[in-house]
Amino acid sequence: MRPFRFSLEKVHNYRLTVEEHRKRELAGARRRQEEEEELLRLYMEEREAFQDRWAGGPEEASLGEFWQRDLYLQVLDARIHGQEERVVRAAAEVKECRDLVREATRERKVLDRLKARKQAVHDYLAGREEQDRLDDMAVIAFNRRGREN
Fold this sequence. Notes:
- By secondary structure, this protein is an all-alpha fold.
- The mean pLDDT is 92.
- The chain has a single domain, classed as Helix Hairpins (Orthogonal Bundle), CATH 1.10.287.
- Helix content is 89%, strand content 0%.
- The chain is built from two helices and no strands.
- The radius of gyration is 35 Å and the shape is rod-shaped.
């Protein structure tokens, strides 16, 4: 019997390639999400450190200093707000990439199961063919022994 050959092997290989590509995209999305979260953490630490410096600061600050402090806090709050939005977008991208990986994996596994079933049928038929040959040889050997006696 011929060796097993899966007729959809090219499709299976393509789906494996797509799945690996999706996994790389997911890894990149996770890395970007971590970078965005780290930047948000840095902005928040900067804001907290700035407030701590001014909390124990001189009570006799000028109006200009109060205005500058307030303006700087507004700028930091705007950066934090913008960074929070980027973190949310990065998390959504990670979720979308994760869903794409799941879908690609599911599609590949469908072909894996089909390939395994086809392989099992092929192995069964090859075993039957081998057994038929052995049976034929046994019958021939039996007939020869019968003629000799």
